[in-house]
Amino acid sequence: MEPTHTILVVEDDPAIRRLICKTLQHEAWQAQTAETIKRALIEVKAKPPACVLLDLGLPDGDGNEFIRQVRTWSDLPIIVLTARDNEASKVAALDAGANDYVTKPFSIAELLARIRVQLRQRQPTATDSVYTFGAVSVDSARHSVSFQGEDAHLTPTEYRLLLELLRHEGKICTHRQLLLAVWGPNCVETPHYLRVYMAKLRQKLEIQPEAPQHFVTESGLGYRFIK
Fold first, then answer.
1. What is the pTM of this model?
2. Does residue 205 sit in the same domain as residue 136?
3. Per-residue pLDDT tens for 8-34?
């Protein structure tokens, strides 16, 4: 079977690198490897992969520096592999521009699922203006939203928040990221705005607002939209 996607594995631990590469090849994906930030940047520029799996603790620096550099010219998916099991480290990676993270030791099944989410996001769709999920249809060209076939009356702020989440399907959007995008730089320290408006979105667009399926809380980090 011909490889369908190329995945760059940026990891300095040989055992973990071999395990990931073997797993990717089993999925008919081609694995590129790099052990340092410098080498990873060379690989990304020479042959852009479909997705990057990035260890944060690399011999020549912090993986967040790689993310920041790549984000100056590319939006390719980056999934962080981190042994730093604390919220601050995860938030720092996501704010730097990572699309998602997996904490070591990780489940291979979970890692593959998160890669597939990012690859789906890169596939072209018939139109970028129409989103459908669950009982919801959003036409961003017409600025219209329907729920179970009926008009859903969203305020301008609710609508901006909804679009920001939809545009980052599968990715964790941090509190700061959402506040900056929807309310602007003067409101990044007012997370209660976000809690209130997320509750309103769930009431209007989730079949069971108390057990949301699409607008999911990532505790201590932010929110994730799941189609």
1. 0.66
2. yes
3. 999 999 999 999 999 999 999 999 999
